[in-house]
Structure to design on (407 residues):
């Protein structure tokens, strides 16, 4: 009786291996066809279990890992995929991903990782916690070094290259091109156990860093610039602005300057010299602009107004729709829902514990022990809400020159 109880309480299950072995040959041809990706098997895996750390470029990165490694892999995943009702239940039963609350310190996630490691399971995670928007590996929380040391597992550094060119996070289309995914290095416990946390963290950042802001190859599609406005909202000529894209052109709606996105990932002004060659440079400028904003100027007049669907995320269960279509306004110190109406809701930045972007353009607001989700139309820019919130947070902490804007 005790043996059965112990077996049933384990995170790792025999069925996870069976399901993975069945699905791998079914999924692999589809993934290779969709992304034209060269997925290299990890031949040195043997019977060892690993902590896999990957840079995050496409929505299918986890499938690349599944194609490289034998046996089941337990992925650390954000709470959003655990709030999809029956689909979430099915995922938990079939592959048992490890849930984590995005942009928060989640002790339960750490404990679950230790549990899987103790049971001999391989764990995979993207230390960035975010899929790149501009082709470069983004901010990695220093806590990753402490977690890895607790798990005491060999670390497989999994590099994904070309994914940003194939399918940028801000885009809805998959371009024609090439990419590859492979284990670039293995860091043994003996190597990192004597390192300081800072040394180990810097090593992880170095190993995972990929910069695709380069005209290294071409990626072709008619709609190369479509939905770039999910990322950019600062014009080098107008400041805070609104953009709209069609096909390979994105246009500032204030000055009406148009920028073409080329198959080489380069940017080119239509009839003028645009100051940024790649989106990464434009993104850096946008962050610098936000980091110089005096938010007090925007406490009376809204910076932006959007129409969205407002839901509450019942963490690890489902989503409850609160308002099908509501107007939200972004101020320098708050987000207001349906302002000047009987059912107005205010989210003061001082009371929000975290604000994050999920998927391509959804935003989660963590407020008063509840999670609210903003989901706009396809052109909705969620990043500006996150950036302005973190600018406010940096100023509130006395860190006027703080650079981190949530991504």
């Amino acid at each position: 009786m005790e043996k059965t109880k112990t077996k049933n309480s384990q995170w790792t299950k025999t069925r996870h291996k069976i399901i993975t072995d069945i699905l791998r040959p079914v999924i692999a041809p589809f993934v290779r066809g969709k992304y034209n990706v060269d997925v290299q098997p990890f031949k040195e895996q043997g019977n060892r279990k690993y902590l896999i750390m990957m840079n995050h470029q496409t929505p299918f990165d986890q499938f690349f890992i599944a194609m490289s490694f034998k046996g089941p892999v337990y992925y650390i995943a954000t709470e959003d995929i655990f709030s999809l009702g029956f689909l979430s239940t099915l995922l938990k039963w079939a592959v048992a991903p490890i849930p984590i609350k995005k942009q928060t310190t989640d002790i339960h996630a750490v404990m679950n990782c230790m549990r899987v490691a103790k049971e001999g399971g391989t764990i995979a995670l993207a230390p960035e916690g975010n899929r790149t928007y501009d082709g470069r590996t983004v901010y990695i929380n220093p806590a990753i070094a402490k977690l890895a040391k607790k798990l005491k597992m060999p670390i497989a550094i999994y590099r994904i290259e070309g994914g940003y060119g194939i399918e940028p996070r801000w885009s809805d289309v998959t371009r024609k091109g090439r990419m590859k995914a492979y284990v670039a290095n293995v860091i043994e416990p003996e190597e990192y156990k004597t390192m300081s946390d800072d040394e180990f963290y810097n090593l992880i950042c170095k190993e995972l860093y990929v910069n695709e802001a380069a005209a290294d190859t071409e990626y072709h599609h008619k709609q190369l610039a479509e939905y770039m406005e999910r990322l950019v909202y600062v014009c080098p000529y107008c400041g805070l602005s609104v953009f709209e894209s069609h096909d390979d052109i994105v246009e500032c709606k204030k000055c009406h300057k148009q920028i073409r996105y080329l198959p080489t990932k380069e940017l080119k002004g239509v009839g003028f010299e645009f100051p940024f060659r790649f989106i990464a440079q434009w993104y850096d400028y946008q962050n610098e602009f936000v980091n110089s904003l005096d938010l007090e100027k925007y406490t009376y007049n809204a910076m932006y107004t959007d129409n969205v669907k407002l839901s509450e995320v019942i963490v690890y269960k489902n989503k409850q729709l609160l308002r099908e279509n509501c107007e939200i306004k972004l101020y320098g110190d708050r987000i207001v829902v349906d302002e000047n109406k009987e059912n107005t809701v205010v989210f003061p930045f001082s009371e929000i514990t975290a604000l994050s972007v999920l998927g391509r353009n959804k935003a989660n607001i963590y407020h008063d022990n509840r999670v609210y989700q903003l989901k706009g139309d396809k052109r909705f820019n969620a990043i500006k809400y996150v950036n302005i919130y973190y600018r406010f947070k940096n100023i509130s902490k006395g860190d006027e020159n703080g650079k981190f804007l949530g991504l």
Observations:
- Residues 1-5 have pLDDT under 50 and may be disordered.
- The chain is about 30% helix and 25% strand.
